[in-house]
């Protein structure tokens, strides 16, 4: 029986039905190498939870509490909200590595956030045509790719290295005529020819962290006051959590 990379992560994250879970468990039990991979993934998940667990004790900043009270847009109680360190990046990092605690924050109207999601999906499906497609192979070493991204968007960013979560950069596409001037899609490919896209531009709505699912796609919008980021992939929630954390952290290292 063949177990794809996607199914393996879904198995680890407990997202398969009982029958498929039992089938894969039997395969894992009979394959020492596969069992070792499962154990390693689970160990990584546990270590990340331990690293960020201390953030749970920190209170929400006063300004965020004020916005919550004003807009009343949180759809979970305070007991289910996760703490943050004072920046959106630190908040989302702690949320996404501690899998299963899904947080939605939308401080203003969602129209701007939905617009950037629509753009990201259009870019991924190639219905939004790029102004320029950059030759990734020619942009080596990594510093050249970073400079190209910084130049296109007019902000200092780095192209995330996604190799630790199984993805390699395949293309960089530049789009014009979007809010903020230009946008860039970073397209990565992983095992089983899975595609993970990272769509970046200046934000046009309030700070927001949101995890969505549309058809067979997981979508993460991760927006602060500097950059709007939409990540899209056909993957489990756990895979998206790991990929989103790696991508956002890699942009700012």
Can you give a write-up of this model?
- The chain has eight helices and eight strands, in the order H-H-H-H-H-E-H-E-H-E-E-E-E-E-E-H.
- The chain has an eight-stranded antiparallel β-sheet with strand order 1-6-7-8-5-4-3-2, sandwiched between helices.
- Helix 5 runs antiparallel to helix 8.
- The longest helix has 22 residues.
- About 13% of the residues have low confidence.
Topology:
Blueprint: H1 5-12, H2 18-29, H3 32-53, H4 62-71, H5 88-97, E1 105-106, H6 111-124, E2 132-134, H7 142-153, E3 167-178, E4 181-190, E5 195-201, E6 208-214, E7 217-223, E8 228-233, H8 237-252
Antiparallel strand pairs: 1-6, 2-3, 3-4, 4-5, 5-8, 6-7, 7-8
Helix pairs in contact: 5-8
Summary tags:
8 helices, Phosphorylase Kinase, domain 1, 21% strand, 253 residues, eight-stranded antiparallel beta sheet, alpha+beta, 41% helix
